[in-house]
Amino acid sequence: MTNDIIPTNALISVNYEVQMPTVSTVMTKNPVVCVVPGNIESVVKILTKHGLTGMPVVNNNGKYAGVISRRDIFKNHEESQTAMVMRSPVPVKESEDVSVAARHMVEQGKRHVAVVSEDNRVVGILTPQNLLKLAMERFGDKKISEIEYDRVIPIWEKTPLKVLFNVLTISSVFVYVVIDEDGKMIGLITDRDIFDKIVVRTDMISSERGMDEDEDPWTWNGMRNFVQYAVQKNMVEIPSSPLSDVMVKEPKVTYRTSKLKDAIQILLNGNFNQIPVISANGKPSGMLYDLDIIKLFL
Q1: Residue 97 is part of which domain span?
Q2: Does residue 134 sit within a domain?
Q3: pTM
Q4: Do 164 and 230 contact (CB within 8 A), yes or no?
Q5: Is 270 helix (H, G, I), strand (E, B) or coil?
Q6: Is the link from the previous residue into 128 a cis peptide, with omega within 30 of 0?
Q7: Nearest to 112 by CA among 161, 175, 47
Q8: Are residues 188 and 205 in the same domain?
Q9: Are the CB atoms for 56 and 31 separated by under 8 Å?
Q10: 266/261 Cα distance (integer angstroms)
Q11: Residues with Cβ < 8 Å from 52, sequence gap 6 or more?
C-alpha cells in the first residue's frame, strides 16, 4: 500500500505568479494629442504649450496613428510633415497588464507608449514616470548592485560647451558625468543645462516661420527642447565657456549599496530620467536610467 503522507521535513516549492495591475490603473488619461495630416510647426506649438516631451498622434477619425517626441524631431529636423517624423509603434490596450507596456518601452528604447481602447482610440499614455511608483513597491528593496544599469560617459570639466554640444548631437547621448583631472566626479551636465546657455535669434525664427508678433510658441523654455532645428538654421549662438561654468554641481547620486527605492524617490522628486551610480571609491561606476528600472517588470 502506498503511503501518501508527506513528511513534515519535505520542502514544497510553489511558484505563485505575482499579478500585475492593468495599464488603465497607472496611465495618464485623456492625453494631449496631435493630428495627421499636419505639420511639425503645429506639433512644436502643442508640445511647447503643454510642456510635453512627446504625445500620441491620431488621424482625422480620431484613431491611433503613432507617437511623436521632441527627439524624433531632433533626428528628422529637415522634415516638415508630421507623418514623416512620427513613429508608429504598436500601442497597448488599457486592459493589458503593466508588463506588456514595460516591454514596449524597453524594446523600443522610448519613453512614450500610447494606450488605446478596443476600438483603437487613444485613451491614455504611459511614460516611465507612470511606472516608477509601482517599481518602488515591487522592487524597492533590491540593491542597486543587483540591477543591470548603463555605462557612464565622463567628460572633462574644461571641455568647451561648443564641443560638448557637437558630441551630444552626434552621439545622441544626453547626459554626461563631469570629472576633474583625477577622474573624480564633480558635476553632471545634460541637454537641458546646455540649452539654458544657448542664445536663440528669435527675430530670425519669427521671420523664417512667418509668426505674428503676438504669437509666443517659441518662448525659450519651449525652444530649448527643439534647439536642433535652430542649429540647422544657424539661429543659435553657443558660448565657448567650459562645462564647469554650466554643469550641475553636487548632483543627486546613488550608490551601489543603496536600495532601489531611495534612487526611485530621487527620480520622482526631481522628475529626472537618470541618476549617477557611485562606487565605493567615490568614482562614477554607471548611470541608472528609468528604463533600466522598467526592465524589472519583464
Answers
A1: 23-126
A2: no
A3: 0.73
A4: no
A5: helix
A6: no
A7: 47
A8: no
A9: yes
A10: 9
A11: 32, 46
Closest CA to 54 of 273, 207, 204, 235: 273
Torsion of CA 211, 214, 220, 221, to 10 degrees: -120
Q: What is the pLDDT along the chain (298 residues), one digit of tens a residue?
A: 444 443 444 443 334 355 788 999 999 999 999 999 998 878 877 887 787 888 999 999 999 999 998 778 766 766 778 999 999 999 999 999 999 999 999 998 888 999 999 999 999 999 999 999 999 999 999 999 999 999 888 999 999 988 887 787 778 788 999 999 888 889 999 876 765 565 545 454 444 444 344 334 444 444 444 555 555 554 456 777 898 888 999 899 999 999 999 999 999 998 888 999 988 777 888 999 999 999 999 8
Helix (H/G/I), strand (E/B), else coil: 259:
strand
In a domain, 139, yes or no: no
Q: Which three cell numbers stand for residue 15?
A: 511558484
Query: Does one domain contain both 189 and 244?
Result: yes
CA angle 281, 282, 285 (to 5 degrees): 90
174 Cβ neighbours under 8 A, 6+ residues apart: 168, 190, 191
> String of b and e for 172-203 (b: at least 16 CB within 10 Å)?
eeebbbbbeeeeebbbbbbbebbbeebebeee
